[in-house]
Every structure is written in C-alpha cells, then in structure tokens.
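Hey team,

Filing this mostly as a record. A colleague (T.K.) asked me to run one chain through the structure pipeline before their review meeting, and I want the input and output archived in the tracker in case anyone asks later how it was produced. No errors, nothing strange. Just documentation.

Input sequence:
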Amino acid sequence: MTSSTEDLRLAAEFAPATRDDWRKLVDGVLKGAPFEKLVGKTYDGIRIEPIYTRAKGAAPIAGRAAAAPWQIMQRIDHPDAVQANAQALHDLENGATGLTLVFAGANGAHGFGLDPSPEAVEKILDGVFLDAGIALELQIGPQSRMAAIHVAELVKRKGLSPASCDIRFGLDPLGAGAVWGSSPYAWAEIVPAVTGAVQGLAGMGFKGPIAAADGRVVHDAGGSEVQELAFALATLVAYLRAIEQSGVALDAARGMVYARLAADADQFLTLAKFRAMRLLWARIEQACGLTPKPLFIAADTSWRMLTQRDAFVNMLRATMATFSAGLGGANAITVLPHTLARGLPDPFARRVARNTQLVLLEESNLAKVSDPAAGSGGIEALTSELCEAAWALFQETEKAGGLFAALEQNIIQRKVAATRAAREANIAKRRDVLTGASEFPNLHEADIAVLDTKPIVLPSYGEAKFKFDPLPPMRLAAPFETLRDKSDAILKKTGLRPKIFLANLGTAADFTARATFAKSFFEAGGIEAVDNEGFADPAALAAAFKSSGARLACLCSSDKAYAAHAAAAAQALQAAGAGHIYLAGRPGEQEAGYRGAGVGDFIFAGGDALAVLREAYRRMERA
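Output structure:
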C-alpha cells in the first residue's frame, strides 16, 4: 500500500468531527432534556455556550511589549513607616519589581494603610532606588491625597530625574466619591484640582500616568464585569476630558491616565475583561481621532473573593486570578496576601503573594506569548460581548452627563445593587461556591497569624454636600463567616460548639451521600455535625440523639429508606427532645406526611442555606 493510499484510508476512518456530530452525541446524553441546560450565564446575562468553534480573523490585542513580563507589585500598607520600609526593601530584594503603596483612606486600604505624612513617606521609601527601574503605584484617598505630592517632592529632594522614575500617582476622586457615596465638592470644583495636580506633576517632569480609573470600586461592591468595565471607561473619559480641556493636547493627555481592574478566580471572565478593557479604550482613542496606543492596566487580585476561613484556599484563588490577568495582558499585578481579610499579613503571607507571581513568570513562562487567548472561540466571543454591553452602559452614563452626574442620579449604583443582590442570593443558596466558607468547612482549622497593629485615624475630609448611594466594598463569604464567628463565641463561652445530630437511617449506602451534604451544610454555619454509623431501630436512634448533647437533628438517607423509616425516626427524635428536625433532600409528595411526623424543615441543593442556618441559631437561642 502506498503512502498516499494510506493517507486516504486514514482520512476516511477519522473524518473531522463537526458541531452536528457533537450535538448528536450530546442530545443522546441529555435524553430529552433541553440543550439550554448546558448553557451558562454571567451576571450580565451573557451566554456561556458549552462549545465554541475557532474564531476566524482574530488577532492578538496589543498590550505589554512582546514577551515582556508584567510588573510584580508588592502591597505595602503597614501603618508604621519603619516597618513598611523594612517590608518594601525585603520585597524588592526577593523578587518584587515594584511597590504598591496603599495609604490610609484609599479605596483598597480595607481598614489599614500607610501614614500619608511627608515624614512617613520619606521613611517608607528610604533606600528604595526609584530611578533604578523600580515601579511605584500609589493608592490614595481624599484624606491621603497629599501623599502624591510628598512622593514627588521626595524625588526632587533626592536629586533624581522625575522622567527616570516609574511612578503611577493614582489620583482618583471619582472612585473615592463612589465608594463613600458623597463629595464635599461638585464636579466643576473637582476638575481644577485634578487638572492642577496632573499639570503640576507633569510640569515637574513625571511621565505618569497620574490619574487612575479604578474599576475595583464596582467589583468590590459586588458588581459585574460589564459594570466594572463601564465604570472604569467612564472614569477614564472624565479625566481625559478634564485634562484636555485644561489645555493639554489629547495625545499627551491619554498618557496621564490608566486603569486598575480587579482579577478574580473566574479564569475566563477575568481574561476576557482585561482584553475588553483594551478594546474599549482603543474605541475611545479612535473617537478622539487618535491612533490607538496600549492603555496601561494595573490589576489587583480581588478583595471580595477572599475568605477569612480556610484562608489557604485564597492562595489558589490568587493564583488563578494572577494567571488570568497576566494572560489578559495586565501591565502590573498586585496580589493581595491570603490572610488580608483577617488583618495585616505576616512575612509568610507576603512571601506567598510575591512568589505567586514569580512562579507563574519564571517557571511557567506565562509572559512569553502575547495574548495567547487570541483566536479562542470562547474567549473571543466573551471579550466581544463584554465590550458591546460595557459600551452600551458607558453610553448611558455619558447621556446622564458623565460619571459624576450618573453617580448623583444613582444610575450605576442601582445596577450594581441588583447584581450584588443576585450574588448574595446565589451565595446564600450555595450556587456560587466558596470553598472553606460555604462548602467544605473545617471547624477545627488552626488559626492563622496576622500582625498586631493599629490602623491610622485620619481627619475628616470635609462636609458631604453632594450625597448619593455609596458603593461599599463587600466580601462574598462574610455572611457565612458571621455565623462561624457566632459558633466560635459559643465555643469560647461554653466549651462546646452548637451541634446537630445526623440521624442516619439504614446502611452506609443509603445515608452517606446525604449525610455528607448535611455535614457540610450545617458546619458552613458553625453548627457541628455529630455523625454515626446509621440506625435501623428508632429506640437506638433516640438514645444516641440524647447522648449526643445536640438540640437539633437531621434525618439523612435515601428516598426509599425515608419512605420506610423517616416518620418513625422523626417521631422517636421528637419524643427524645429534639428541638427541631430537618430532613436532607427534597420531600416531594411526602412533605405533608413528614411534617406530620415532626420534620420541620428540608435542606437540599439550591435551598437558602443562610436562611436555614440563621433560623437554626434563633431556635437554639430560644430553647
């Protein structure tokens, strides 16, 4: 057989699979269930199809220079300037290529932050060679805004060339006002202050960028990717317009602004969001008659995804977030240490945050390929849909008179609040899983170390003359953590956690699946599950419940075993003094019978776990 004949034979045996071929196989598995069951949706309503074809005609989106790594930024936020300086020098000696100086009062300070005084700024940067390629990003708030001037003055005092220093000054009064829900000044009064600062720093020789458009404001408040992009874009345009109107040429003005976005553990959405930000900005540049240049985009890993419980899982979340932002073209990434939700991180947590980036860059070589998602059908489609939806929301903001006017009219806040409510509902129902918090909790986890220090108290910024709905930051795990804190308080006071007895009926094959579900369900709220090998005799079940010390009980078994034994078991538990009885699983047509036998509630996947757990505590408090 010749080579060409063999090739023909193989081609006949292994013809290329088509989408129709795949669909036939899928329909066979679905067995009549609707195909839509396989289609996901984002919080913006964007469809996530189960399969995509290769995108045609796609090209890489220009971002970082070819094969250039992103800047490895390390967060510096210790209130003590001497300690902050020691952290900064250690981080730079061990792989960080830049410092993110988070000052007290900044949007991302989360209760701590640096002292913004000139003396503190000088101590913090003592020994940091700002003209040696070290990047510096300032995160400042209205109360700490003078820190930007103090940094600039320090550069001049040291005799350094401002043009040789890579400093992003982070001016962002719009972001601060959005978080606070107020402003002492009207936008017309804010503009001269912003443009004056920008022109002053530029006049000193700093190359910028100087003003930041902080999409984290929306992300941290529970908003969606589209809302974050539209907010950041509207902020960029507001600052660009203000700078241009102050007499700066547009080509120069665009170099004075940059964006900051949040990166979370949703790999594809984060990757597509960063790509979309570049395309949206290019659209603005084209509308201004400018040839597009890559926008500088800084990334912070997400605050809202951090958990206080099982904090080591935050390392995995941060790794995925960094991976996604890096592949999405971020120019600089700051990884929030995994213990930040508990307090100021210790040296180990800071080392892990730094090394997360180093491993991905130096060992995984993520920066070696520019825009590796280019041409991927799913990512290209998601990027495009994020762009279109964000552009529409941006236009709505512009029609309202710009971002400040849109905030005054609560246009953005209402949309973010609706998304936040949807998130909170899905968290409560454990549809959005938070490992270690809402799922797979560990009531016996060891405590984690954080630094013991007091935050800086800053003076008031001024009277809030313009008030609107705020966009306060949140953490998704907080409602479950509140219940865990309540459990810890009870343990500290009494020596015992609140308990629930798992009334396992039948054999292990009958009850294991639902007992495992029930254990995770109740322990996510800090209610310790008392497990056992199962019971067939109601009297033995009642005796075991009495000896457990629990006030609550949960029946766990198969539907078949429930039909035969649940009623008798519930009656025995009730007679033994159970304050409330749950049944793991949907009751179906048997609900009335189970309730008649003493079952009070049913727990199942998709039910409101938070509501059930909160009521469980109220029942125990009333007992």
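Quick notes for T.K.: Residues 226 and 447 are 37 Å apart (CA to CA). The first strand starts at residue 40 and ends at 41.
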